[in-house]
Amino acid sequence: MARSLALDVSNRLLPVAFAFLCIMASQLMAASCTPEPVPYASRVAISR
User: Fold this and answer.
1) What is the Cα–Cα distance from 23 to 15, expressed in whole angstroms?
2) DSSP assignment of 8-46, as one string?
3) With the CA atoms of 7, 11, 12 and 14 taken in that order, what torsion angle do they form, in degrees rounded to the nearest 10?
4) Which of 13, 39, 42, 43 has the most Cβ atoms closer than 10 angstroms to its Cβ?
5) Cα 48 to Cα 24: distance, rounded to the nearest angstrom
6) What gap in Å lies between CA 16 and CA 23, rounded to an integer?
7) pTM to 2 decimals?
């Protein structure tokens, strides 16, 4: 009985675990991209 319960729980959690793995993979891919350069016009010159 405990084995069937454990298999039932693992089958229910399998899509959740797959979703977490996909989210983590997309975060790693987004972090490995180089950021776009900031245009010079967006910088504000401070004059005193």
Assistant:
1) 12
2) HHHHHHHHHHHHHHHHHHHHHHHHHSPPPPPPGGGSPP-
3) 130
4) 13
5) 47
6) 11
7) 0.53
